[in-house]
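Hello,

Our lab assistant flagged a job as stuck in the queue for most of the afternoon. It eventually completed. Since we weren't sure the result was trustworthy after the delay, we are filing this so someone can double-check. Below is the sequence as submitted and the structure that was eventually returned. Let us know if re-running is recommended.
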Amino acid sequence: YFASHGWKDITIAFPVNLLEIDDINRLAADIRLNLLVENEYSLELLSEQLTSPAGIYIEIDTGYHRTGIDSIKTARIDLLLKRILKNRLLQFKGFLSHTGQTYAATSRELIVSRHTDALMKMRSLKEFYLPEFPGLEISLGDTPACSVCDNWQGADEIRPGNFVFYDLMQWQIGSCAPEQIAATVVCPVVSKFIGRSEVVIYGGAVHLSKEFIIGPNGKKCYGGVISQDNNSGEKTISSTLWVTGLSQEHGIVRGEFEEIRKIQPGDLLEIVPVHSCLAADLSGHYLTTAGEILHKMEK
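-- returned structure --
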């Protein structure tokens, strides 16, 4: 999708999926393609099946503990490097990490602390291997750190993704201000239960995902609701209206009695997703506030 729209230098920042080798070979023949490896087995098979040159990043685990090699395990890194150097089609680019532990931070200070730790680990690796590989790069990517941290000394590339939209979770941990959130899911109201102070929207897990945060009331929140001032037209995220439950297609919005009383079936509610990446992936297209439809990659 990106290559067909003119992007000629693409990194697939996900451990190489060997079942996609045909697509990998087609892309590598047409663009500068970079791949991510973190285990010997995948690298061995990639070496056997790759037909065009590709850049290789070694993924480093800086504390998220999802994928990647621990930054202190240089013996394992050396094994991968030795295998990379044996194949003329594999071009070692450097080290890549996703500091996903910042998403679980509860304050800006904790985001900075976790980022600083990850950056130091990556810089240490760079300094250790730089004499042997003078052009090596380190690549880091996470929206919280890229939003609030100033020190990126030694990093050659940053890869924040969620920052283009932000969401309720990013606001909660201090990555953004509420007015910086740029994506909402517009959902029709289909039913109303005034006795329970609830309305039901056509907007469920297939539109919002089942990600949640713990709201100010101590309960699970699956989405915020945009309220609009009738006089000024200013939009804010309501402090009392929340998506409190989801099934596949249905969403339950609960609020104070007077707020719910004003909402009727057929109204549209703007829901701020907890995690905009998932909500954006679930949607068929984007609709701008100017009414323009932005098409997405077809699945």
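-- support follow-up --
The delay was a queue issue, not a problem with the job. The result is valid. The chain has nine helices and 17 strands. The first strand starts at residue 9 and ends at 15.
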